[in-house]
Amino acid sequence: MFHQTSVASSGQVATSCTVKFQYVQNYPDEAPVFEITDLENLDEEYEDILNDFINEQISENLGMAMVFTIVSALQEKIAVIIEDRKRQEEEEKERVFREKEEAEQKRFEGTKVSVETFLAWKLKFEAEVNELKAQRLKDNPEPKGLSGKEMFMQDDKLDESDMIFLQSEDADVEVDESLFQDMEDLDIEDDEGLDLDDSDGAVD
After folding, report:
1. Average pLDDT of the chain?
2. How far apart are CA 116 and CA 178, in angstroms?
3. Cα separations (Å) of 97 from 86, 91, 104?
4. Which residues does UniProt assign to the signal peptide (predicted)?
């Protein structure tokens, strides 16, 4: 004779399984044969746990009608499994949150700097800058300007440029007479006490 029952637990997520019992000739003095099927929201690893639990219940209840007792105990067992699983999930969420919070805190705190670590960073930074400069010069070399001598050596007409400029009509030099207007205001008087002879430079 077979007996099939579904065991479910209450909660936000329905969790259940089906247990099939087969009564043997000497039941209840002999253990019935059972099979667990149709696990809902229970991983396969829990099937072994439930099998062991039912076997324990059978051993404790041999000699008396036990199917109802086993089903009731199994329902409580599933409820405990759900609570344990929920607790583990909450602990995992809390652990992940705590790790993220600690990582964020470390990011704001930064790295403690000592004299040794600063000098090491400075040397590394300067080496990187020098390497970048060298690479930049290698990729884009700066053009070197010609000296005056090199310009004359390349173009012999440059030494005639001044003469050409002076001989051109556009080379007239204009003098700003206003610069000399203040000369008339200077008080320059001849020294009457001296009579200089322009011819021989003697004094009368």
Report:
1. 75
2. 70
3. 16, 10, 10
4. none
